[in-house]
Amino acid sequence: METFEWTGPMDFDVQVKLGVHRNFAETGRRSSPETVADRIDSNVESVLEAYRCLRELRVLVLEGDGSSIHMASPFAGVATSSTRQDAADLHSHWPRR
């Protein structure tokens, strides 16, 4: 089977998403916009704009302040006692389309 390897530039939102996920995987904690900006060599304002885009795409669930990560599936930024019902109710945190 032939494999495909992407060699072009990575979309900025994807860089932010991967920075968030890598931080969760390496530290077990949610990252701040400053941490993500440092990780991907960017600035906080651009990271926050990417957070908003990723929220619209339902990739991130943000806290009310718009900059703290509540969830970046499969990672939770806060302690949870997650259940199947919690997962079913998750959509209530996402913006309506």
Would you write up a description of this structure?
This protein has 97 residues and is mostly helical. The protein has one domain: Winged helix-like DNA-binding domain superfamily/Winged helix DNA-binding domain (Arc Repressor Mutant, subunit A, Orthogonal Bundle). The chain contains four helices and three strands; from the N terminus they run αααβββα. A hairpin with a 2-residue loop joins strand 2 and strand 3. The N and C termini lie far apart (39 Å).
Task: Write a brief caption for the model.
The chain is mainly alpha-helical and 97 residues long. Helix content is 44%, strand content 8%.
Secondary structure layout:
Blueprint: H1 12-27, H2 33-40, H3 44-56, E1 61-62, E2 69-72, E3 75-76, H4 84-89
Antiparallel strand pairs: 1-2, 2-3
Helix pairs in contact: 1-2, 1-3, 2-3
- Computed over alpha carbons, the radius of gyration is 14 Å
Mean pLDDT: 80
Strand order of the largest sheet: 1-2-3
Distance between the termini: 39 Å
Order of helices and strands: HHHEEEH
* Overall number of domains: 1
CATH superfamily: Winged helix-like DNA-binding domain superfamily/Winged helix DNA-binding domain
- Using the coordinates shown, work out and report the CATH topology: Arc Repressor Mutant, subunit A
Instruction: Give the fraction of residues assigned to helices.
Output: 40-55%
The CATH architecture category equals Orthogonal Bundle
Number of helices: 4
What CATH first level would be assigned? Mainly Alpha
The largest pleated sheet is described as:
3 strands, antiparallel
Low-confidence stretches: none
Total strand segments: 3
Estimate the strand proportion. 5-15%
Class of secondary structure makeup: mainly alpha
User: What gross morphology would you assign?
Assistant: globular
